[in-house]
Amino acid sequence: MSGHSVPQPALDRMVPFSGHPVVVGVVPDQDPLVVRVAVTLARAIAAPMLHLAYVDPSRYPVEEHQDGTVRHAAFDSDADDDGWCDLEALLTAQVRRVVDGEVPWRFTYLAGRPDRSLTHLARAVDASVIVVGTRAPGSAARLKEFVEGSVAAHLTHHQHRPVLTVPLAVVDWKELRAPWGR
Fold first, then answer.
1. Interval 77-135: pLDDT, tens
2. Which residues neighbour 91 within 8 Å (Cβ) at sequence distance 6 or greater?
3. Do 46 and 153 touch, CB atoms closer than 8 A?
4. Residues 34 and 26: beta-carbon distance below 8 Å
């Protein structure tokens, strides 16, 4: 067991909602509802900036910067190291279609574990809240979530900011099954 204490959520650690940025986790082909909810929240709390971020799990952070950005590299040294640039352009365009003109925003391409990377960004920009969507429906997504856990659950257990989880699929209460079922 570790000898150090981990800072716990408390009123004196809470970042006020009003006037603080909102961080949003995005993924390719994500339902625009996640970003629309984040935009609505950002407008409601007069957030000065909406920080949208994709975390690439096939890359790792080499250096973390004070503004929340990272210099990153591929885990696979034989991989095409510029392939991420195409994904960044695709995601920026995807976000632009939903957000442009609504609120000031910035897209950041991150690397590593989504929960850690989004937490780093939220700390760096002093965000009041982190917004994420639920996993896409389907048995592969349910199995992945069962094995790895959800990003929202990891975020709520490993940092002190509130996490707003936007539901993307609803399951009838009568049909609740184990994550590996169907």
1. 777 677 889 999 999 999 999 998 889 999 999 999 999 999 999 999 999 999 999 86
2. 26, 28, 54, 107, 109
3. no
4. yes
What structural domains does the chain harbor? Answer: 15-169 (3.40.50.620)
Determine the Cα–Cα distance for residues 35 and 133; give it in Å rounded to an integer: 9
136: tokens are 């896409």
Q: How far is CA 19 from CA 124, 128, 139, in A?
A: 15, 9, 40
pLDDT in tens, 50-85: 999 999 998 999 999 999 999 998 888 777 677 889
Please tell me the total number of residues recorded for the chain in this structure.
182
Half-sphere exposure of 31 toward its Cβ, with a 13 Å CA cutoff? 13
* Helix residue ranges per DSSP H, 51-177: 83-99, 114-125, 139-148, 151-158
Q: Report the predicted TM-score, pTM, of the whole model to 2 decimal places.
A: 0.82
Distance between terminal CA atoms of the chain?
Answer: 39
Q: Which tens digits make up the pLDDT trace of 40-55?
A: 999 999 999 999 999 9
- Report the alpha-carbon distance of residue 88 to residue 65 in Å, rounded: 18
- Reported as half-sphere exposure (CB side, CA atoms, 13 A), residue 49 has a value of 15
